[in-house]
From TrEMBL:
It holds the Pfam family RIO1. It comes from Xylaria hypoxylon. InterPro entries: Kinase-like_dom_sf, RIO-type_Ser/Thr_kinase, RIO_dom, RIO_kinase, RIO_kinase_CS, Ser/Thr_kinase_Rio1. Its cofactor is Mg(2+). This is Serine/threonine-protein kinase RIO1.
């Protein structure tokens, strides 16, 4: 999502082509409506359809537990899917002296409303940090948009009642799709902690462009009802919450997911103790005398984060840019992950390429000697190699080392630019079905030209990984860092109820044919066919989108 905190900002690159089944990409197909144009005309926002019924508070109170509503006691959602958010909320102690709900949960909705309304004074949205709003237009908008609808207010009162937040203050950001508010919570009677509350707008009609993130997302097969704004927004909030959990559990700097209820998400605050949020990377104040060194190391840090996001979290951010990264003290923080997709999403690699372009362009503008998009892409999706320190940064430095010595002269830079352009236009098949011309590609592989295929990392280790001196395929660093993080994730926050959804990617599969099941063997055989005459050991990595297709 493009933050509206950036008026006049250049919009992230959108792929100039549309994928059609069995027909590859077609640049001539009409473009999807850019996100900024996809909003409904002003008038339609005022129709009955556009607004959800603000008075309908049943789903807010129906769990009687001030938890994220709409879920059965077995922790399953309305469509039988495991409700990770609920499990997470349930298991995560908020703090030791957590207040007991003051309202009688068996009271009628009206009684509950009046009981909770005593917290009204704790929502003080006029308390805006002026300079936090970044410019005057935004400050005006923040003021005009501070009116929360009754549903949102009730959710916030419930959260205050539970002690998830103590007070809610002014808007840190107001956008087209969500507002983010600053809040404080009291961990014990004396310790005040800052929190951020992201409130998704339910009266928005800009879901058209969101469809591409949901379609093909196995986690959202059920439950997506495009005709129901409120439900869709709830799904987005849930998606952001789940993604944040994964990212946070993987040790990538991001807001800590704290609680989710319907369209309201409470997370850790990225900012100082007084409530000033860290700047976005685009607004980062980097001292001029150290700028070159700091920007370069931030670039390397970001490449590492993207690889870790892909390999450990199995996610592609899908809206990564200087607007969705916060900066503080040489550290990057990833935010705004509601649109992030699983790496087996049919368009994940296209989104990844877009993320690489947007972030690469930004760092190039800061004067950083960036790597070619294609090199970064390969680095991120290559199954072998380190996914955390020590080793991750070193492997990026190796990419620089192995780049031709001449890469710094003008000619090489021009070549890199051309290569970037070609790469951005190139078709990236994500599944075997999508490969244009299997025979031609097989022939290229047969002639030792497999490394020229954009999708070589999706095929087989033998094509991807350098051979060692004795001709064996190097497995690289196949350490289990990811698994360690994942099991931590499972034990701390997840019950086994959600294993169906999240952990199927998290456990990892032993490598080697011995461990393949029948379907996997079938894929392996097909891959072997492509890769003849030297049948490779198929990468049995669960990371391969190709592999996942046939699961
Ligand atoms: N956890 C947080 N701590 C501090 N600031 C935050 C946090 N989350 C978001 N923000 C601030 O709020 C802004 C908007 O957040 P985010 O990018 O998640 O919303 P968005 O989805 O882009 O909303 P929209 O698209 O409607 O603008 C960010 O640029 C950042 O300044
Ligand atoms: Mg944003």
């Amino acid at each position: 999502m493009e933050s509206s905190t950036s008026p006049g900002a250049v919009h992230p690159h959108e792929p100039p082509h549309v994928y059609t089944h069995n027909n590859g990409y077609d640049a001539s197909v009409e473009q999807e409506i850019p996100r900024t144009l996809a909003t409904a005309p002003e008038d339609s926002l005022h129709t009955a359809e556009a607004y959800d019924d603000d008075d309908d508070l049943d789903d807010i109170f129906d769990d009687g537990n001030y938890d994220d509503g709409n879920y059965d006691d077995d922790g399953l959602g309305p469509n039988g899917e495991p409700d990770l958010a609920r499990n997470y909320n349930r298991q995560k102690p908020l703090h030791s002296n957590q207040q007991k709900p003051a309202a009688n949960t068996f009271n009628s909705v009206d009684d509950q409303i009046s009981a909770l309304s005593k917290h009204a004074a704790k929502i003080r949205l006029d308390d805006v940090k002026e300079s936090q709003t970044r410019d005057k237009d935004k400050a005006d908008r923040a003021t005009s948009e501070q009116v929360l609808d009754q549903r949102t207010r009730m959710i916030l009162y419930q959260m205050i009642n539970r002690g998830v937040v103590g007070e809610v203050h002014g808007a840190i950001s107001t956008g087209k799709e969500a507002n983010v508010y600053g809040a404080v919570a009291y961990e014990d009677s004396s310790t005040k902690v800052q929190r951020a509350v992201k409130v998704y707008k339910t009266a928005i009609l800009s879901f058209k462009d969101r469809e591409r993130y949901i379609t093909g997302e196995h986690r959202f097969k059920a439950g997506a009802d495009k005709g129901n704004n409120r439900k869709m927004v709830k799904l987005w909030a849930e998606k952001e919450f789940r993604n944040l959990r994964r990212i946070h559990a993987a040790g990538i700097a991001c807001p800590e997911p704290i609680q989710l209820k319907l369209h309201v998400l409470v997370m850790g605050f990225l900012g100082d103790k007084r409530g000033w949020a860290y700047p976005r990377l685009r607004d980062a104040n980097i001292p001029a005398d150290e700028a070159e060194q700091i920007w370069s190391s931030l670039y390397i840090q970001l490449l590492g984060i993207m690889r870790r996001l892909y390999q450990v979290c199995k996610l592609v951010h899908a809206d990564l840019s200087e607007y969705n990264i916060l900066y503080h003290d040489k550290q990057l923080y990833i935010i705004d992950v509601s649109q992030s997709v699983e790496h087996d999403h049919p368009r994940s690699l296209e989104f990844l390429r877009m993320d690489i372009k947007n972030t690469g362009d930004f760092f190039r503008r800061q004067g950083v000697d960036t790597l070619a998009d294609r090199v970064v892409f390969d680095f991120i999706i290559a199954p072998g190699g380190p996914v955390q320190e020590p080793g991750l940064e070193q492997s990026i430095e190796q990419l620089y080392t192995s780049r031709a010595e001449s890469a710094t002269d003008d000619k090489a830079l021009a070549e890199q630019e051309v290569d970037n352009e070609v790469f951005r236009q190139q078709y990236i098949p994500q599944t075997l079905e999508q490969v244009y011309d299997i025979e031609k590609d097989a022939e290229r592989i047969g002639h030792g030209e497999g490394d020229k295929l954009v999708y070589r990392n999706l095929l087989a280790d033998q094509v991807v990984l350098p051979k060692t001196a004795d001709g064996q395929v190097s497995e690289g660093d196949q350490s289990d860092e990811g698994a360690a993080v994942d099991s931590e994730d499972d034990s701390d926050e997840d019950s086994d109820e959600d294993s169906d959804d999240e952990s199927k990617f998290l456990k990892g599969t032993p490598r080697g044919k011995r461990f393949e099941d029948r379907d996997e063997k079938k894929v392996s055989a097909e891959i072997d066919m492509i890769s003849t005459p030297n049948p490779p050991a198929f990468s049995n990595s669960p990371l391969s989108p190709l592999f996942l297709l046939f699961k």
